[in-house]
Specification:
single chain; 93 residues; mainly beta; three-stranded antiparallel β-sheet; two-stranded antiparallel sheet; 7 strands; rod-shaped; disordered N terminus
């Protein structure tokens, strides 16, 4: 509801609060481009609507800086521990 007028949206992963639309995609299946239509009406014969686009993306994790990752030669039955440089995941998962 916006100022006591009902509001509808078309994406299954969105919720409505007064004057707010919260968009919360949770799965890879929701990646894509969406045209959102917000419609307001007051139960009279006319309504008003607006469109906006939402692009849901999935970004890969990335290393925070480029270190030279050196090749190693390892003899059979030996162990070598390689420490990876720091990384970040934009989605936090």
């Amino acid at each position: 509801m916006i100022n006591n007028a009902p509001v509808s949206v078309s994406a299954m992963f969105s919720t409505i609060a007064p004057a707010t639309i919260k968009i919360s995609p949770k799965t890879f299946a929701e990646v894509g481009q969406y045209k959102m239509r917000v419609e307001i009406f007051d139960y009279q014969p006319y309504s008003s609507f607006a469109y906006f686009d939402v692009k849901v993306i999935n970004a890969a994790p990335l290393f925070l800086y480029k270190e030279i990752m050196q090749n190693k030669r390892l003899h059979f039955n030996n162990t070598y521990e390689y420490i990876l440089p720091p990384y970040a995941d934009p989605e936090g998962n």
